[in-house]
Write a structure and sequence with these properties.
CATH class of the largest domain: Alpha Beta
Number of domains: 4
Shape: globular
Radius of gyration: 27 Å
Strand order of the largest sheet: 9-10-11-12-8-13
Largest sheet: 6 strands, antiparallel
Distance between the termini: 44 Å
Number of strands: 17
Bound molecules: flavin-adenine dinucleotide
Structural class: alpha+beta
CATH topology of the largest domain: FAD/NAD(P)-binding domain
Length: 543
């Protein structure tokens, strides 16, 4: 858990997963799932008829017909790997690229962009002197991502922290003429938030050192991922600068880091369901939409999957808004603003982050999951009980009043509360910064013992009540604008008073609501007012 010393809004879970075990587990999960057939082939063409997708075709000419298609091509579209000034087509190290599919998408009318990402060298753990690094243990016991996981029983491995230094930076700077990034060989735009080490050394030249986390790749391998030194310098330069780093003086590089350029489909061409605007029933998810990262990809895969099924079943789509989930923030950012560099999710991107805590994800989303059949009745039953316990306990704390009698003063004195001069509810006492919930219930226990999860929600709910209420008021205002819907086929050309830029942007993005329109860059408050008036004129007050 990151940021445990900060408030709950910025705490975040992070996991390093065993690469091999994860792959096996997911394969097992998919194979055990009813109604999924696994078919392998290199898709070269998306098949379309009358503006609707009808399936895909592989390089062998095999056609798979379907009602919906979801493209999740990652970094494979015209993937080009760079190591130093050498480059070669590949989807990922050792894998074929997908050369034809992006042309097929272009032929269908999609704009295609180009991005770049990179990966660090892998190091043999047997050649690392860990005594010269700082050991970084995970939480004990490890905290699962999901409340459906009771506990994690796999053995845990630590990571190790080390740093670059002046010598490392000198070697990198001296060799920039052999870096594809700095010789103009790479055209795609790279990630601002996890830049390559050569980028960091050049852009943050005032920094004396940069962190490197040496992360084990799994329980059954000695391979280490050197997180922090993603690079596309030539292999000999990589090894040379690695050897300047504490603990890595004799490191053996299993494989060098590399940069990869790839095509993506700019996500402003998508609806909030992740269905493309121009080809019905075709969905895009993951890195093809300009994101980078596992969670970003998984989140989009989930939403595209749910909505592709909803489309087939002709049921309501699932759209999460910015106040409900980071997924909502992610998708809204992508489809409204697009991205010019690989997009990563951060807590700072969310306006209502005090509400979007990982610890209340189930309270925010389980109900929706249950309604669309993704949460079992058993899990839902457990969740309802949890929600009831939280409500009941908060209610008890708000209604139980403590009078400043001698007996009460002794009782609260025992748990460290020194002052109680006027009558106060238990929740008022809990709001005091020095009062911990765990101690408070030693003096005034609930009728039945509560689980840690319930206790956490009760404590955050009461301690941060003022801030939470303020955000809830903002959310109400936000929802008002989100509910003012704009039909997708709205005719912006008919409106007088828009500048050409505003008109072009609105026609390009085709926002689904006034709220979304306000978030398009370059759409001024004046333009929003004109749009509101035009909508009212066209559709009456209901829209
Ligand atoms: C070496 C490396 C290390 C990374 N490390 C991290 C990390 O530590 N943390 C993190 O958050 N992110 C990391 N990332 C980024 C993360 O892996 C990706 O952002 C994420 O996996 C993207 O998921 P995706 O499902 O969109 O695509 P991918 O996971 O790339 O999957 C794409 C899949 O589509 C298949 N495919 C592509 N084209 C076709 C076609 N035409 N026909 C058939 N199949 C096709 C490919 O074979 C592949 O299986 C790393 C990326 C790389 C390359």
């Amino acid at each position: 858990m990151l940021n445990t010393r900060k408030g709950p809004a910025v705490r975040a879970l992070r996991a390093q997963a065993d690469r091999v075990l994860y792959k096996l587990e997911m394969r097992k999960t998919i194979e055990a799932q009813e109604n999924i057939d696994i078919l392998q082939g290199m898709v070269t063409r998306v098949l379309e008829k009358n503006g609707k997708v009808i399936g895909v075709e592989t390089g062998l000419g095999i056609r798979y017909l379907s009602k919906t298609v979801i493209l999740t091509t990652g970094t494979f579209l015209k993937g080009l790997i760079h190591i130093g000034l050498k480059n070669f087509p590949a989807g990922r190290a050792g894998e074929f690229p997908s050369m034809e599919l992006s042309d097929s998408l272009r032929d269908l009318g999609f704009q295609i962009g180009r991005l770049k990402t990179g990966t660090p060298p892998r190091i043999d753990g047997r050649s690392i002197d860990f005594s010269k690094t700082i050991i970084q243990h995970g939480d004990e016991p490890p905290i699962p991502f999901s409340y459906s996981t009771e506990k994690i029983i796999n053995p845990q491995l630590p990571c190790y922290l080390t740093y670059t230094n002046a010598e490392t930076h000198k070697i990198i700077k001296d060799n920039l003429d052999r870096s594809p990034l700095y010789c103009g060989v790479i055209e795609g735009v790279g990630p601002r938030y996890c830049p390559s080490i050569e980028d960091k050394v050049v852009r943050f030249s005032e920094k004396e050192r940069h962190q490197i986390f040496l992360e084990p790749e799994g329980l059954n391998t000695t391979e280490y991922y050197a997180n922090g030194i993603s690079t596309s310098l030539p292999a000999d330069v990589q090894l040379k600068f690695i050897h300047t780093i504490s603990g890595l003086e004799k490191a053996k590089m299993i494989r060098p880091g590399y940069a990869i350029e790839y095509d993506f489909v700019p996500p402003t061409q998508l609806k909030p369901t992740l269905e493309t605007k121009i080809i019905e029933n075709l969905f895009n998810a993951g890195q093809i939409n300009g994101t980078s990262g596992y969670e970003e990809a998984a989140a989009q895969g989930l939403i595209a999957g749910i909505n592709a099924v909803a489309k087939i079943k002709d049921t309501e789509p699932l759209i999460l808004n910015r106040s409900e989930a980071y997924i909502g923030v992610l998708i809204d950012d992508l489809i409204t603003k697009g991205t010019k560099e690989p997009y990563r999710m951060f807590t700072s991107r969310a306006e209502y982050r005090l509400l979007l805590r990982h610890d209340n994800a189930d309270l925010r989303l389980r109900e929706k999951g249950y309604k669309i059949g993704l949460v079992s009745s058993a899990e839902y039953g457990i969740f309802m009980k949890k929600r009831e316990s939280i409500e009941k306990e908060i209610n008890r704390l708000k209604t139980k009043r403590i009078r400043p009698t001698k007996e009460a003063k002794t009782r609260v004195g025992e748990i460290g509360i020194t002052e109680i001069n006027a009558e106060a509810t238990l929740s008022q006492l809990l709001k005091r910064p020095d009062v911990e919930y765990k101690r408070l219930i030693e003096a005034y226990p609930p009728a039945e013992p509560l689980t840690n999860e319930v206790m956490e929600q009760v404590e955050i709910g009461i301690k941060y009540e003022g801030y939470i209420q303020r955000q809830l008021i903002e959310v109400e205002r936000f929802k008002g604008l989100e509910e003012k819907r704009i039909p997708l086929n709205f005719d912006y050309d008919k409106i007088k008073g828009f500048s050409r830029e505003v008109k072009e942007k609105l026609k390009d993005i085709r926002p689904v609501s006034i709220g979304q329109a306000t978030r398009i860059s370059g759409i001024t408050p004046a333009a929003v007012s004109i749009l509101l008036v035009a909508l009212e004129r066209e559709y009456g007050r209901k829209k």
